[in-house]
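Hey L., structure's done. Input below.
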Amino acid sequence: MEVNEEKRIKFMENAGKRVNKVMHDIQILEPMARSSVYDFTKSDVEEMFLAMQESLNTAKAEFEKKFEEKTKAERRAFSFGTNTTPVVENTNVTPNVVQAQNDTVVQNVETTEETVAVGANVGDITDIEL
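Output:
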């Protein structure tokens, strides 16, 4: 993945400032734990840190989407000649012929449990030989 250097520099400057601000805000919570001015329960602390963790997880997920979308786009790439017909390894297979609505013939694979049309949609099939 190629990175635009100008955009990366801008990201580094702004992200650095924002992360430092978040870290500062977290650090100023610490004295509250040691102060006799405040009273709190373990449940209060758990709730407070759970909320912060959920916010961190949400923000991180947004950043990770950039990489996931590129991976999904790469998986969806299509090229003629690279698709293969499924191979049936059942020894109890009998090929049948199915006439589709557009007058094309597609091959079916029949097993002892079910018949599967290879290359046709179920709605397109008008006649099945059993």
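Helices lie at 5-27, 30-34, 42-75. Residues 81 and 119 are 15 Å apart (CA to CA).

-- N.
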